[in-house]
């Protein structure tokens, strides 16, 4: 399948599935975020508590991301993303059920926000590093990363706009329900991917023989400075 140069990464079937699933899921995520902000302010009428909820969402990601990144490198990224997306779907489902039943309270929102922050701490590094395994041609990797950024920016624009219309025309819980359904798209795409293991190139015999190291004592100070600048800027 041929695509314009701007979208050449979509020639890879796995990345195409990822692109479409993530696009729908991120729109749902931003709809849910917008509805959550509206709901918190509607329940509390407090800007302070609105900030507390935002803090509860971000602090687990801030604290756990360095450790989660190390673990993600050791785990199967496809399986990890399926798990994190399923947990995110569960979080949105609980928000929808509590909101539709009018049983939701502030502590529910804070607890679910902390839970989502913990999930995001694993999901974000797994998702970002997963792209490398989705493009068939290495020269398309840069385009895939650029398209990922465009997905995020586009969803950040479209999601809140749709959420505003839904909140005005229907109700706040409808945004949580749509977000729950949107996760099905990315989970289905992850299950449909056919990934193959990438073999690491085996170095040749010449590359395995260590090269003699030139003593720095024989080099002039100017050559050391120039060499350091080349390493730093190149």
UniProtKB/TrEMBL annotation:
Entry keyword set: Cell membrane, Membrane, Transmembrane, Transmembrane helix, Transport
Transmembrane residue ranges: 17-41, 47-72, 93-115, 162-192
Coiled coil: none
All residue ranges annotated as the Major facilitator superfamily (MFS) profile domain in the record: 9-234
Keyword Amino-acid biosynthesis on entry: no
Membrane topology field: Multi-pass membrane protein
Entry GO MF terms: transmembrane transporter activity
This protein's name: MFS transporter
Organism encoding this protein: Leptolyngbya boryana CZ1
């Amino acid at each position: 399948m041929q695509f314009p140069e701007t979208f050449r990464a979509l020639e890879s079937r796995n990345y195409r599935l990822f692109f479409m699933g993530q696009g729908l899921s991120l729109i749902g995520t931003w709809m849910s975020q917008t509805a959550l902000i509206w709901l918190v302010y509607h329940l509390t009428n407090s800007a302070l508590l609105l900030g507390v909820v935002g803090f509860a969402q971000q602090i687990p990601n801030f604290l756990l991301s360095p450790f989660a990144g190390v673990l993600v490198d050791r785990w199967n990224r496809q399986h990890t993303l399926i798990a994190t997306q399923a947990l995110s779907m569960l979080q949105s489902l609980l928000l929808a059920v509590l909101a539709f039943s009018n049983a939701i309270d502030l502590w529910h929102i804070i607890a679910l926000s902390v839970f989502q922050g913990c999930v995001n701490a694993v999901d974000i590094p797994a998702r970002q590093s997963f792209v490398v395994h989705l493009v068939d041609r290495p020269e398309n990797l840069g385009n895939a990363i650029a398209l990922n950024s465009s997905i995020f920016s586009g969803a950040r624009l479209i999601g809140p706009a749709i959420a505003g219309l839904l909140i005005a025309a229907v109700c706040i819980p409808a945004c949580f329900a749509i977000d729950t359904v949107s996760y099905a798209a990315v989970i289905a795409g992850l299950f449909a991917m056919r990934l193959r293991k990438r073999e690491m190139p085996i170095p040749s015999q010449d590359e395995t023989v260590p090269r003699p190291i030139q003593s720095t004592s024989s080099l002039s100070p100017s050559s050391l400075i120039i060499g350091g600048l080349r390493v730093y800027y190149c």
